[in-house]
C-alpha cells in the first residue's frame, strides 16, 4: 500500500502511543518536542520548543521554571505537533498466589514470586 493522499513528501499521519508517565514533563514528552531531523523520524521541527525545553531543564528558580512550562504549553498549543485521539487504560489481573507485584504505568515482571 502506498501513499494515496495526493500529498507530496510522505504520509500525513503517524499513529503511535507512549505510557502516560513518559509525557509528564517537556524533556521527556516526545509528543511535543521539536527535534526535527535529529529526533524520531518524521517529527516536527521546532527550535523554539527545543530552546524552551533546554531552558526549563537548566532553570533553578521555581517561578522561572513555571513560566517556561507555560511557554512550552503555549508553543505546543500554537504549533499543534500532535492530536491525541484517546487514552488507553489496560486492565490487568494476577493470580491470587502471586506476591510482590509492583504497580506502574506498564507491567513489570520483576519482584514477583509465588507466595
Q: Which strand order does the major sheet show?
A: 1-2
| Low-pLDDT segments | none
Mean pLDDT: 84
Please compute the radius of gyration using only Cα atoms. Answer: 19 Å
Number of beta strands: 2
Count every helix, treating DSSP H or I runs of 4 or more residues as helices: 2
Encode the helix/strand succession as letters.
Answer: HHEE
Strand content: under 5%
| Helical coverage, percent range | 25-40%
Give the overall shape. Answer: extended
Give the N-to-C terminal Cα separation.
51 Å
The major beta sheet can be summarized as: 2 strands, antiparallel
Structural class: mainly alpha
Topology record:
Layout: H1 47-58, H2 62-79, E1 98-99, E2 113-114
Antiparallel strand pairs: 1-2
Helix pairs in contact: 1-2
Write up this protein.
The protein is mainly α. It has a domain at 20-84. It has two helices and two strands. The chain has helices at 47-58, 62-79, and strands at residues 98-99, 113-114. A two-stranded antiparallel sheet has the order 1-2. Helix 1 (47-58) packs antiparallel against helix 2 (62-79).
Task: Write a brief caption for the model.
The protein is mainly alpha-helical. Helix content is 26%, strand content 3%.
Kindly list the characteristics that best describe this protein.
single chain, 115 residues, mainly alpha
Amino acid at each position: 500500500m502506498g501513499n494515496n493522499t495526493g500529498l507530496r513528501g510522505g504520509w500525513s499521519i503517524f499513529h503511535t502511543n507512549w505510557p502516560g508517565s513518559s509525557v509528564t514533563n517537556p524533556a521527556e514528552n516526545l509528543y511535543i518536542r521539536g527535534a526535527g531531523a535529529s529526533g524520531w523520524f518524521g517529527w516536527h521541527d521546532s527550535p523554539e520548543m527545543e530552546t524552551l525545553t533546554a531552558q526549563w531543564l537548566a532553570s533553578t528558580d521555581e517561578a522561572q521554571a513555571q513560566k517556561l512550562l507555560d511557554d512550552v504549553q503555549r508553543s505546543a498549543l500554537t504549533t499543534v505537533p500532535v492530536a491525541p485521539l484517546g487514552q488507553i487504560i489496560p486492565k490487568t489481573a494476577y493470580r491470587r498466589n502471586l506476591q510482590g507485584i509492583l504497580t506502574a504505568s506498564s507491567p513489570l515482571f520483576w519482584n514477583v514470586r509465588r507466595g
